[in-house]
Amino acid sequence: MKFTTLAAMMVAVAVFGLLIDGHDCKIVQFIFGDSLSDVGNNKYLSKSLAQASLPWYGIDMGNGLPNGRFSNGRTVADIIGDTMGLPRPPAFLDPSLNEDMILENGVNYASGGGGILNETGGYFIQRLSLYKQIELFQGTQTLIRSKIGEQAAEKFFQDARYVVALGSNDFINNYLMPVYSDSWSYNDQTFMEYLMDTLEKQLKLLHSLGARQLMVFGLGPMGCIPLQRVLSSSSACQDRTNKLALSFNKAGSKLMEDLSSQLPNASYRFGDAYDVVNNVISDPNKYGFSNADSPCCSFGRIRPALTCVPASVLCKDRSKYVFWDEYHPSDSANELIATELIKKFGFSRVGETDGHSPAPAIAPSPEG
């Protein structure tokens, strides 16, 4: 009897151990970013002026209610993750987040208005910079180590996929605005060096925390977003702003190559979709769009209306607009960008998943 009891206990311990090991075999994503990747963190920052918590944001997802995404639908990271069979990570600040959810779905730390630099987006009052997001990730690691142990946690974080998608705010909501000291403390070259030096330190820090498979998203032609166009008397793209985006992409691509060769077991890639977005903006009809210079959600002739609000007027067919609001691409544009990156890098499904996602899916048929 005693032997049978002891054997049963040993089997139970072994099964429990397998369950713990099962957690560290699940491949998830950890996403660091700005409003292009935010899935709800800012709605829990009560003082933040960068919000997507009002209609009509989220109109083409799930129940059509705002879900924290700064678009009518999915983000680029949503679409790429779905294609790879990865679960959509919930917002870090979601009150329901716990260790089990992290082990099953990963975490999204992205914050509207956030930048690579701590000073970026200051006039939004509250936002999470990349350094702050990494600090929160360190706290996440402490929770997971307590839950499944040091060894299993190390494997869990090293097997995970990482996305870093920031940079546009460092220009549009920092360097290019005279209210920020960076605008007069640097020139184009020295600011880029400052930005890349900071990003290099941050990516090395993530590597020290276990990030082995990581992609940094490049910048699109940010001088062509509606907010930049409306600042021009001719409504043309801002050439200097676009040149800064191209410089960022060139420097960022080189940084990824250097880090991949320097850091042990690092597979660091740079996702540059500038050309495809520029092509869409230059010839929208070729790609199925009818408008590439103004937002679908606008406040009539009052421009720029910096955010989409309930009193805003929506375009007739959201699938035909490249831009959802003054800053952000529409779901259709995000799908085009994601598809380009998927083709460029040959992304395929990762491991075995059940395909379940706690995040809302795209609505089947948007209505005007």
UniProtKB/TrEMBL annotation:
Listed InterPro entries = GDSL, GDSL_Est/Lipase, SGNH_hydro_sf, SGNH_plant_lipase-like
Tell me one GO biological process term: lipid catabolic process
Q: Which UniProt keywords apply?
A: Hydrolase, Lipid degradation, Lipid metabolism, Signal
What the entry lists under Pfam families is as follows: Lipase_GDSL
Q: Name one GO molecular function term.
A: hydrolase activity, acting on ester bonds
Please state the span of the N-terminal signal peptide per the UniProt entry. 1-25
Reading the lineage from the top rank, the first entry is: Eukaryota
Q: Which family does it belong to?
A: Belongs to the 'GDSL' lipolytic enzyme family.
Which named protein is this? Answer: SGNH hydrolase-type esterase domain-containing protein
Lineage start: Eukaryota, Viridiplantae, Streptophyta, Embryophyta, Tracheophyta
